[in-house]
Each structure stands twice: as structure tokens, then as C-alpha cells.
Amino acid sequence: MENGDSINLGVQWRYFCNEGPASFYSDFNGSLSLPFPGLDNKGKYVLFTRPKNLEPVYIPRVLYHVIDMNENNGLGKLIKKNIELFKGTDLASVSLQACKHANGRDWWILQWERNNPLYHVFILDEKGPRFSHSETVGAHGPLSVSQACFSPDGTKFIWSDLNKGLGL
């Protein structure tokens, strides 16, 4: 995709994306693409990514990129990339998750701290993605989530952690 090179720059990108055709970017469920809400944003998508440090493994920030699929005869173009949405100190890796807002148009996106019950909440609306608030939920948080999702009605969120079990 035009301008799609060098997104999500960081230690992991330098390690995995510059070692030939057999390399891959090892951040399973670490990115998320959502349709950009609003009539002025038709055909646009927001891609959320998180550069990953390898030793020790942690996520230092959340980035976003805007893709316009109306460009290049439908092949698309990155029109904004590597924009910092949030800077943390020790964010949990994998399973970046989103839930449709109650208005049926916008999106809520969750990113949590590693080994801490602190969740950072972002909103994506027609103005673009931005930080909304942080919230403490429960007594402990995940170390490294292997899977997470919202219930179909958006009222519950569940995660599984190989070390800590399930969190609801």
C-alpha cells in the first residue's frame, strides 16, 4: 500500500522487518483496524499498533495510522502514520480490543497496564482517535494476555492470561 512502509517503528520493527523475506512481525493480536466514523470519513480506516520492546518485553506506547481506501483506485494509501495516541511505561502486550459505542457509530478501544488492573480507554469518533480516561477494574490485571474480547452486547469484557487465569 502506498506510504505503508515503516509503520509501527521501534525495536521489534528494526529486528523483524529488516532481515529478509522470511522475517515476520511477532505481535499476535497487537494491531486493530476500525472504520473511521463520520460521513466525511467514508472509505477511511484507523489502524492502531503498538511498538514492542523485546528485552524486557513490554509495550511503551499506542500509535495510530489513517488509511484512505478511496486512493489509488481502491488499493488505498496511508495518509497519516505513526501518530502517538498514548505513552505508557509498561503496557500489556497482545489483544488490543474494541467495542462499538452505544451510539452505534463510534468505538471504544482498551489498552491495559501489564500486571496491573489499570485500563486505558480511547474513543474513536468522527474527530479521530483520542484518550478518554483510565479506570481501575478488579484486584489484579493480566501479565500477558493470550486472548480477550467483549460480550456481543458490550457489557462484559473477559481476558485470559497463562499465568493468572481468567479476568472478567
Describe this protein's structure.
The model has no long low-confidence stretch (mean pLDDT 83). Strand 4 and strand 5 form a beta hairpin. It contains one helix and twelve strands; from the N terminus they run H-E-E-E-E-E-E-E-E-E-E-E-E. The chain has one helix spanning 11-16, and strands spanning 32-35, 44-49, 53-54, 57-68, 77-91, 97-100, 107-112, 118-125, 128-136, 145-150, 157-161, 165-167. The strands form three sheets. Strands 1, 2, 3, 4 and 5 form a five-stranded antiparallel beta sheet that branches. Strands 6-7-8-9 form a four-stranded antiparallel beta sheet, with no helix packed on it. The protein has a three-stranded antiparallel beta sheet with strand order 10-11-12, with no helix packed on it. It is mainly beta and 168 residues long. The chain has one domain (11-167).
